[in-house]
Specification:
The complex is a heterodimer of chains A (about 400) and B (about 130). With about 400 residues, chain A is mostly helical. Chain A has helices at about 5-25, 30-50, 55-75, 80-95, 105-110, 115-130, 135-140, 145-160, 170-190, 205-220, 225-240, 265-275, 285-295, 305-320, 325-335, 340-345, 350-355, 360-370, 375-385, 390-409. Chain B is an alpha+beta fold and about 130 residues long. In chain B, strand 3 (about 70-75) and strand 4 (about 75-80) form a beta hairpin. Classes of the chains: A mainly alpha (about 400), B alpha+beta (about 130). At the A-B interface, helix 19 and helix 20 of A face helix 2 and helix 3 of B.
Amino acid sequence: MDASQTVDRVARNAYGRLIAYLAARTGDVAAAEDSLAAAFLSALQTWPVAGVPERPEAWLLTTARRRQIDAARRQQVQTEAMRRVYESTVQVAEEQDSFPDERLKLLFTCAHPAIDEAVRTPLMLQAVLGLDAGRIANAFITKPGTMGQRLSRAKFKIREAKISFEIPSSRELAGRLTAVLSAIYAAYGTGWNDVEGADARGPGLAEEAIELGEMLVLLMPSEPEVHGLLALMLYCQARRSARRGFRGEYVPLAEQDPGLWSLEMIDRAEAALAAAASFGRIGRFQLEAAIQSAHCQRRFGQPTDWDAIAGLYFGLVRICPTLGAITATAAALGEARGALVAWEYLQQIPPDAVRSYQPYWALLGHLLARLGLVEDAREAYSTAIGLSHDSACRSFLQGRLELVSGSSA
Amino acid sequence: MQGRDNRAQETHDMQYSLLFQLTPAEYKRRENPEEYAAFYAAFMPYFQAVKDAGIFVTGAGLAEPETATTIRWTETGTEVQDGPFADTKEQLGGFFVIDVPDLDTAMEWASRYPAQPGGGCEIRPVLPPRN
C-alpha cells in the first residue's frame, strides 16, 4: 500500500473519530475540519518522502492540533478552550497510540435541539463521515451553495452558542436520542415501500446511514432503539436489489422475488432486532423493524401475516402518528381486512395534509380500484403520478391506471 | 369520494420560474403521435398536481426551436435571424411560474417533472414587482 492509499484508508476509518476528538475540546467543528484537512494534505506531501508513520492517526491528530494552536495564536485568541488544546497536545505526544472516541458526543451535538431539524442530518453526514456539501445537497434536492451555507451556519451556532459536546443526562437522554436516530433514518431516505407505488423523494444515502447506525450500536450498545433502527435499515436494504426489475422498472413489494432478498443482510437485521428485544422496552424503530421482519418471512417460504403486520402498525401509529405511518397502516389493513376498512381508516387524515403526499394517492388509487370505483381510482392514480419524483414509480402507476381504465370497458 | 377542490391561491413571499430544457431527442418525440401521447399521460397529472397545490401562477409550452426567430440588438441597429438565440443542444421547451415559500419547495416541484434523461430544469427566482 502506498502513502496516498494509507491516507485514504485512515481518512475513511478514522475521520469521524479525529474530528470528534478535535471538536470536542474546542467546541468548534469548522476549525476541527479545517485543521484536519490541512493535516491530511500535509500527510499526502510528507508520507511519500519520509515514509508512513508507525501510528498514522496519532500523527494526523498531532499535526491537526498544531494547526489549531497556530491558528489561535495568529488570531491572538487566548481562550480557555485553546489552553486546553495545548495541554492535551502535550499529553497526546506522550500517549501517542490511543485517544478517546468522542463520536457519540459529536452525534448528540449534531442533533442538538438548538440546531435546526432540517440541517441535523446533513451536519451529521458531513461532520462524522466527511461527506461533501455537494453530495449531501444532491441527496436532499437542495441547492449546493445553500447546503454549504446551512452547514456553516450550524457550525457557527455550535461554536458561538457554546453547544456542549456531551452525552445528555439520563433525564434528557430519551428525547435527545430520538433526535439522533431520526437524523440517521432521514439519511437512509427510503420511501414507504410497503405502500404499493409510493416513491422515495431522493436517492438517499443508504450505505452512509447504515454506517452511522452501526457506529451508534457500538457506542450505545444498551439502548434498544439504537439496535431497532439498525435492524430496520438492514431489512429495507436486504430487499433493495429486488425493488427494480431487469429494465429498471418498479417492482412492488408483493411482486418482488424473495429469492433476490439478501439473506446475509436479513440475518444481520434479525440479530439486531433480537438484541433490541432483549431489553423489553418497545419503541418506534423496533416496531418498524418488526414490521419489516414480518415482510421478510416470505424469504423463508412463509406467507405474509397481514393481521400481525396491521397489529404492529396500530402500535406504531399510537406512539408515532405520522402521515407515513397512518398511510402504511391503511395499506396493511387493506390486505388484512379489505379495501373498504382501509378506506374508512384513511378518512381520519385531513385532506389538506395529504394534498401533495404521493404515497397516500398511490394507496387510495389501489383501494378504490379494488372497490370497483373506476373513476375515483383513476383520479387518485393520476394525482399520484403527478406527484411522483421517480420515473420507475410513475410508469408503474401509469400501468395501474391503464389496468383500471381497461376493466371499466 | 376524495375531493380535489382547487385551493384558493395563497400568496407566499417568493415566485420561481421553472425553465424546462429539452434535448433534440425530446423534441423529436413530439412528432411521433404515440410518444406524444405518452408524454402527455405523464405531464398532465403533473400539471394538475401543480394546480391542485395552489402554487401555479402562469406557464406555457413552446413550439420547437426551429420555429424561433431572433432579433439581436447590435451597435448599428437590429439584426433578424432564423432560429433560437443560443446555439445550444438543449433548448427551452416551456416554463412554469410557481408561488412557493422557498427554493427547496420550488426544487421539490421541479424534480417531479416527468423528464427524459439529458433534459434539465433551471430554477430562477422571479424579481419582485417594483413600486
